[in-house]
């Protein structure tokens, strides 16, 4: 597992959030954010941030695991009701105002929280840590790069292994197996293996459809290594497809390269999206590009920031984002090409090394 330490930058982020909201405590319930702060990887946890202390609350299933993983927070292990542990251990003693992640707490949980721990002014805040989490340190970038190398190795294997007559589900199963045998912890999402007309569905699920000569085949998959995710899409042909498929591929590749060339930290998200979208629109396929250009990736496969035409915010330095334009022609075929890049002040670093040459297998 990736070695975890609470860096000075992260300590300053937490203290800054306390100051920004004039709060005595932060109530962190997002499991990826809890891992980002203290390294805990369990499925039931709560992190309370006080100005001079951190408190991880979990249940008895994770007694040993929490002791191994968490070194810079006090660990509280009691029953499954974490709120009751906060109350009984007096973790919020003398707290007058607390901020919680409103996008990770249900209304029912919020009501129970108010009833269980009265006398505190609760303030919900959406996206409490998203900008800090988005800006990766070099250790995090290396972890994403390592996961990406596994995914690229699987793709190279598939190019020699895939044959006409195979089912999409058969290929998906092989994708999972090959990732795991190469050291992945798990898949970062269910593989998208889409052939022929199914490739025109941006998030197609693998079916029992068999590959035929002339099919366009869209392959989108990634894995998790040391907690961090990879994500890559390549589109290939099974034999020789119709002439428009190759032409569409070239348009998508041109759009992707244009976006990567122009990408940098500090630009508006919508402006990065426009670099690719304008190319596709100029070629007459604008209505066939039906999703945003990309998304952040890290401890989660899809995290802030989104790269989309509707996103007004500024892209932060050292965010890792996908660049994945696509063209989808219903009932015919679809093409998408996806790489991961690190946004820098003066440009971007491309993490994905797999070939993007037109390939017929």
- CATH class bucket of the largest domain: Alpha Beta
CATH topology of the largest domain: Creatine Amidinohydrolase
Strand content: 15-25%
Overall morphology: elongated
Distance between the termini: 37 Å
Largest sheet: 6 strands, mixed
- Regions with little confidence, pLDDT below 50 for 5+ residues: none
Over all CA atoms, what is the radius of gyration? 23 Å
Order of adjacent strands in the largest pleated sheet: 4-3-2-1-5-6
Count of discrete alpha- or pi-helical segments spanning 4 or more residues: 10
User: How many strands in all?
Assistant: 19
Key traits:
34% helix; alpha+beta; Creatine Amidinohydrolase; elongated; 10 helices; single chain; 3-stranded antiparallel beta sheet; Creatine Amidinohydrolase, Chain A, domain 1; 24% strand; 361 residues
């Amino acid at each position: 597992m990736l070695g975890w330490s609470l860096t000075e930058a992260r300590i300053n982020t937490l203290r800054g959030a306390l100051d920004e909201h004039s709060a005595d405590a932060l109530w962190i319930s997002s499991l990826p954010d809890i891992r980002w702060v203290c390294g805990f990887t369990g499925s039931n946890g709560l992190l309370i941030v006080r100005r001079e202390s951190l408190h991880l609350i979990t249940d008895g299933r994770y007694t040993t695991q929490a002791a191994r993983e968490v070194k810079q927070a006090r660990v509280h292990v009691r029953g499954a009701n974490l709120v009751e542990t906060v109350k009984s251990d007096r973790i919020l003693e003398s707290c007058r105002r607390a901020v919680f992640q409103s996008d990770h707490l249900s209304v029912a949980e919020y009501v129970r929280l108010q009833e269980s721990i009265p006398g505190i002014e609760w303030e919900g805040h959406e996206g409490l840590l998203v900008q800090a989490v988005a800006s990766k340190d070099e250790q995090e970038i290396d972890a994403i790069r390592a996961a990406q190398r596994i995914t690229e190795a699987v793709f190279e294997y598939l190019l020699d292994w895939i044959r006409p007559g195979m089912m999409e589900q058969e290929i998906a199963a092989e994708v999972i197996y090959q990732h795991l045998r190469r050291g992945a912890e798990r898949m970062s999402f269910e593989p998208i293996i889409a052939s022929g007309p199914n490739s025109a569905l941006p998030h197609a699920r693998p079916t029992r459809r068999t590959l035929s000569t002339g099919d366009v085949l869209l392959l989108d998959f990634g894995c998790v290594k040391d907690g961090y995710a990879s994500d890559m899409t390549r589109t290939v042909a099974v034999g020789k497809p119709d002439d428009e498929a190759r032409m569409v591929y070239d348009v998508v590749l041109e759009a992707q390269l244009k976006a990567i060339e122009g990408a940098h930290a500090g630009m508006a998200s919508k402006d990065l999206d426009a670099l690719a979208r304008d190319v596709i629109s100029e070629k007459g396929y604008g209505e066939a590009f039906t999703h945003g250009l990309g998304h952040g990736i890290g401890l989660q496969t899809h995290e802030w920031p989104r790269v989309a035409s509707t996103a007004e915010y500024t892209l932060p330095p050292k965010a890792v984002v996908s660049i994945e334009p696509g063209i989808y022609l219903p009932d015919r075929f679809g093409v998408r090409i996806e790489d991961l890049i690190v946004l820098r002040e003066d440009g971007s670093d491309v993490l994905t090394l797999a070939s993007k040459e037109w390939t017929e297998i």
